[in-house]
Amino acid sequence: MKIPLSKPYLNQKEFQAVKQVLKSGWLTYGPKNQEFEKNFAEYIGVKYAVTLNSCASALFTAIKSLEITGEVILPSFTFSASANAIETAGAKPVFTEINYETGNIDLKDIERRITKKTQAIMPVHFAGQSCKMDKITALAKKRKLFIIEDSAEALGAEWQDRKTGSFGIGCFSFFPTKNITTGEGGMITTNDEKLFQKIKTLIGHGISKSTSQRVREQKPWFRAAVLAGYNFRMSNLLASLGVEQLKKLDKMNDLRRKHAAYLNKKLKDLKQIELPKEIPQAKHVYQMYTIKIRRGNRDLLVKKLKEKGIEASVHFDPPVHLQPYYQKKYGYKHGDFPITEKLSSSIITLPMFPQMTKKELDYMVSVVRNNIY
């Protein structure tokens, strides 16, 4: 049996939506983007949402639109895109420790690393579980800092009944491994109208009105840049996928939660591993299902799983502070973040997607049990 790490949950609705856009001839930013943005904002519980070509672009744009040039605090235990966005936008990433149990940012370490140069906190909601956003929000308010939520892995996740991406500026990913997909794509969420307008302008070459808006004006050809912008727009074609995917997001997340509960039940007696835990006041949406090795060889177990057709992986190894660019520029070394490094060397990501069958889940359980020592 072969079980992929993830699998997009697609049906005829998505195929028909794409077909309709192709027939319309309007392939760039257009009506489907606007529909997707409206529905997404309503789902998250914010006033505005903007489609982009990736979450990396969303993070970069958030930093640029806020004119951040100082320090941004984030965990080292994340995908490099989080730190890269800060670096390429002209700010400085400052790494923090995490909570070993959840993989999420450590509040006390955030406080320790705030300086006069700190301008923002970037909590990364790991694997589908929200950070403790009430405490982070309170700290940010007290220290007058922006919050940029890296919600790439947490669409639909909640903290105290509020969706991630509604506490600060939310940045989401629609990569095929995520809770919904548009192939490639991202979204920014905000309640700030001025910021919303600036983001729209920045991602469209610095021009304040899109083609679909200008087409109704007397001079639709008039395109004047008010900012030195970028081209980070999502196409109407990909947005049509997003519209259909969003309609079944809650169903897909419910299936992920169901599968995770089943795996937890079947693996809970294994003393050699630690299972993912949904902490109080959080709603976990299991973009990834991760286990931690308490003893034994993590890399060998991943290899054994792959040999048996289970496409297990590791998220994230190495952590960002031990990646060559950041080591060379900032002088980070092994031992700087011991909890992060411990998690990075013990974690395994097992396959997780909505349409997993009981047969696949049972096979995965069997292989894990038979190959852990």
Automatic annotation (TrEMBL):
Active site, renumbered: 178
Keyword Ribonucleoprotein carried by entry: no
Modified residues (N6-(pyridoxal phosphate)lysine): 178
Record-linked InterPro entries: DegT/StrS_aminotransferase, PyrdxlP-dep_Trfase, PyrdxlP-dep_Trfase_major, PyrdxlP-dep_Trfase_small
GO molecular function, one term: pyridoxal phosphate binding
Pfam families: DegT_DnrJ_EryC1
UniProtKB keywords: Pyridoxal phosphate
Example GO biological process: polysaccharide biosynthetic process
PANTHER family named among the record's database cross-references: DTDP-4-AMINO-4,6-DIDEOXYGALACTOSE TRANSAMINASE (PTHR30244:SF34), TRANSAMINASE (PTHR30244)
Protein family membership: Belongs to the DegT/DnrJ/EryC1 family.
This protein's name: Spore coat polysaccharide biosynthesis protein SpsC
Taxon lineage: Bacteria, Katanobacteria
